[in-house]
Amino acid sequence: MMMTANLGFPRMGIERELKKALEAYWKGDISQESLLETGRTLRVRHWQLQKTLGIEQIPSNDFSFYDHVLDTVLMTGAVPSRFLRSAERPGLDTYFRMARGDAEAAAMEMTKWFDTNYHYIVPEFEEGQIFRLQSEKVLREFEEAKESGILTRPVLLGPMTFLRLGKSRMLCSKWNLLDGLLCVYEEILSRLQKAGALWVQMDEPLLSLDMTAEEERQFRRGYSRLLSSPHPKVCLTAYFGDISEKLSWLTELPFDAVHLDLVRAPRQLDAALERIPEQMMLSLGIVNGRNVWKANLTDCLDKLLRAADRLGAERLMVAPSCSLLHCPVDLAQETALPAEIRRRMAFAVQKLQEIRILARAVREGHQAVEPILEENQRLFQSEKTSRLFYNPEVRNRMSQLTDSMFSRQSDFERRRRLQRQRLCLPLFPTTTIGSFPQTPDIRRMRADFRKGALPEAEYQSAMKRQIENVIRFQESIGLDVLVHGEPERNDMVEYFGEMLEGFAFTQNGWVQSYGSRCVKPPVIYGDVRRASPMTVHWIRYAQSLTDKPVKGMLTGPMTLLQWSFVREDQPRRDTAFQLALAVRDEAADLEAAGIRIIQIDEPGLCEGVPLRQSERAEYFDWAVKAFRLASCGVKDETQIHTHMCYADFNDRMGAIIAMDADVLSIEASRSDAVLLEVFERYRYPNEIGPGVYDIHSPRVPSVEEMEALLKEILRYLRAEQIWVNPDCGLKTRGWPETEASLKNMVQAAVRLRRSLGG
Ligand code: GLN
Ligand code: ZN
After folding, report:
1. Among the four 45, 133, 302, 403, which has the fewest Cβ within 10 Å?
2. Domain of 546, in residue numbers
3. What pLDDT, on the 0 to 100 scale, is given for residue 671?
């Protein structure tokens, strides 16, 4: 009969035990044995839990002390030589050294895992790279589960995705390394088989990307070879996108099962039912592994029955769309959420229950789970009418959007003239990205105020003192455009989310971001509405202290969207536009309060870019519209800034230009001239501040260094376009280096002005 499967369980533990143990170990507070014990306890607990929930294909090796890509680096012996110490055999400490670096060796790079907010460690391949089976973690964990009575399906990051994600400074192609790598995989597969594994899960999310003909060829070659030596049954797992156009050649390979992400790409089911050969099973990823909402069980069941009809239920597995790594652990922990919202939610545990229910419905027939299906159906119907989710006022506004709301009144040239007259800024105006150091003092006051331990009046005056200090400091060093420093903000999304209708916050909805770091994204459950001004009070106060312009700081709609769990009952675009209207209203209120410059941060915009080229134009179209809806409600003489960081600007310049912000600030100091060339090539039309120093390090850059960088920038951009600012906000920095760096930055701008006779 149809099997239930899971692709991966959240690693941290319900109390974030792993995070706590890791950080204690790194500090030297607990022994390695104690850390290993925490890992063991969590793994066994999670296997038992999944068994209790009725999952038949339970994953192992989904656990990781830091990251599964880094595990694969260690497994294949691809440890870069700078981390090897002569006296030791690479082990857990080598592993953490790769992730975090030490005095002798810089950490390996980290980047986003496909289009999720999880970050993996980027493998580095060296000239003449030799692979060998170095870590037996996958075997050990399989045995460990077996001892606790559970026969798991070990998860391996597939060799093709592993190679593709890695970087190499070699001249020849990475694919020359494939054969060496396959030897390691062959050895693992054969040893897993000997150990009694019936199945392995081979994750190849690279299939959801655009693949070159060469990559396809190597994929076929690689798996033909791998699958011709002894191995357990292999479930090829693709997630995060549509692989239908690759099925024609994938299904020629002797995989025992193929997993499809039917949440991201529901339409590929038909292609798969059409193509899948007799001996192959199909794993249907129909419960969303990346969000916090219940599945529509009736819809899911329709798909399952259609597939069962076609292939026979015994050839099917039912599973989450992807690993549940991207989802919080257990809704049972959430006691404070409004019941109406909570009823609609499902975390990892609840999602596995859904899998189980669906499997029962197929095995035993509808009747077996009828009450559950009916209740689920009622939820999805009532949503359409509930005032909690649908706000008539917001709906009405959304239906009355006009084209003119997406454009400024005049073109940039005219706006620029008016803004110049009004702001009287020098050549190379200096500014910062918004936040100033968030000292332990500030954090404590905010926390106390939240807990009710600090009275409102005292909190207000404490924050005002912070703002005043920051304003005075900026004046004293001669910055041209000031900020209030954002002391009242814990997080740039949470701060706004807490004041907007339609957002909810969980107590324990943590998901791993990287290593021991977890984030707790807000939940957008319903129509978004701004009940009252969110920032005006603080910005107006800051402006009252100085004659220099103070920038009002807002988080943009795409970033609010991207860094939250988003409702699924309407297109993301609609939610983005609702968010944009809220930001638009805030900008209008700031303007009315006399604020002359407003910055709408969009560091999240480029993070939402689809994996496939063919889907990007549509995304950029509505993403840019959302930004414009948020930013175009102000008068010509009000200057709109935006800020983005860590994006690859190359293929998105068109969209960035189309945002039509008067001033754009971007991260640039860590990249080389390549980034700047882009701005020349595309002739960036408006004003722009490529960051002149890296805020991720406490290092204080010298005046000369920043002046030199500005001169370099001048080769690519016109002097009248250039702003001078750091790469990003300063909230994670200390005051000493912030003071010194900003002073130097202002001096660099002053020198450059003089040298150009400005
Ligand atoms: N204004 C925000 C800050 O300065 C921007 C943060 C970001 O780009 N991530 O902190
Ligand atoms: Zn930034």
Report:
1. 403
2. 426-650+659-755
3. 61
Instruction: Report, as an integer, the average pLDDT of 436-461.
Output: 97
Closest C-alpha to ligand 1, atom 9: 603
CATH number of the domain enclosing 548? 3.20.20.210
The residue to which tokens 């200390």 are assigned: 734
Residue whose Cα lies nearest atom 5 of ligand 1: it is 729
On whether both 366 and 515 belong to a single domain, the answer is no
Q: What pTM value is reported for the model?
A: 0.96
**Nearest ligand 1 atom to alpha carbon 729:** 4
Same domain, 613 and 483: yes
* pLDDT reading at 696 higher than 90: no
Q: Residue 646: nearest ligand to its CA? A: 2
Instruction: Kindly state whether residue 747 falls inside one of the protein's structural domains.
Output: yes
Q: How many CA atoms lie within 13 A of 718 on its CB side?
A: 7
Alpha carbon distance 591, 161 (integer Å): 49
Indicate whether 88 pLDDT > 80.
no
| Residue at which a domain ends, from 349, 383, 417 | 383
Q: Are 443 and 339 found together in one domain?
A: no
- 432 with 283, same domain: the answer is no
414 found inside a domain? no
Q: What is the pLDDT of residue 634?
A: 98
What are the backbone dihedrals phi and psi of residue 38, each rounded to the nearest 5 degrees, phi first?
-60, -45
Q: Answer yes or no: are the C-beta atoms of 723 and 661 closer than 8 Å.
A: no
- The answer to whether position 358 is within a domain reads yes
Give me the pLDDT at residue 697, please: 86
Give the ranges where 593-702 is alpha helix by DSSP (H). 616-631, 653-658, 673-681
Asked if residue 397 belongs to a domain, the reply is no
Ligand 1 centroid to Cα of residue 666, in Å, is 11
Quick one: which ligand is closest to 431's CA? 1
Most informative mutation of 117, 432, 433, 550 for ligand 1 (most atoms within 8 A of CB): 433
Which has the higher per-residue pLDDT, 554 or 667?
Answer: 554
- C-alpha to C-alpha distance for 347 and 290, rounded to whole angstroms: 9
- 120 and 217 share one domain: yes
State how many domains the chain has: 2
Residue 171 has pLDDT above 70, yes or no: no
503 vs 223, 357, 567, CA distance in Å? 46, 29, 10
Average pLDDT over residues 155-159: 98
Q: Percent of the chain scored above 90 by pLDDT?
A: 91
What residues are in contact with ligand 1 under a 6 Å CB criterion? 433-435, 492, 553, 601, 603, 643, 645, 728-729, 731
Is there a single domain that holds both residue 357 and residue 247?
Answer: yes
| Residue 378, burial from CB neighbour count under 10 angstroms (0-12, 13-18, 19+) | exposed
Catalytic residue among 259, 366, 641, 696: 696
Task: Indicate the residue among 383, 417, 445 that finishes a domain.
Answer: 383
Confidence label for 384 from pLDDT (cuts 50, 70 and 90): low
Q: What is the pLDDT of residues 96-140, one digit of tens each?
A: 999 999 989 999 999 999 999 999 999 999 888 999 999 999 999
- Judged by DSSP in three states, 284 sits in strand
Instruction: From 643, 644, 696, give the residue whose CB has the most ligand 1 atoms within 8 Å, as the site to mutate.
Output: 643
Express each pLDDT in 576-589 by its tens digit: 999 999 999 999 99
Distance from residue 718's CA to the centre of ligand 2 (Å): 23
22, 586, 602, 629, 644 from 595: Cα distances, Å: 46, 11, 20, 19, 22
C-alpha of residue 644 to centroid of ligand 2, in Å = 5
Is 696 catalytic? The answer is yes
Atom of ligand 1 nearest to the CA of 644: 8
Residues 377 and 430 in one domain: no
Q: State how far the Cα of 149 lies from the Cα of 51, in Å rounded to an integer.
A: 10
pLDDT in tens, 308-351: 999 999 999 999 999 999 999 999 999 999 999 999 999 999 99
Ligand 1 center from residue 493 Cα (angstroms): 10
347 and 431 in a single domain? The answer is no
Averaged pLDDT, 35-43:
98
Confidence of residue 172 (pLDDT cuts 50, 70, 90): confident
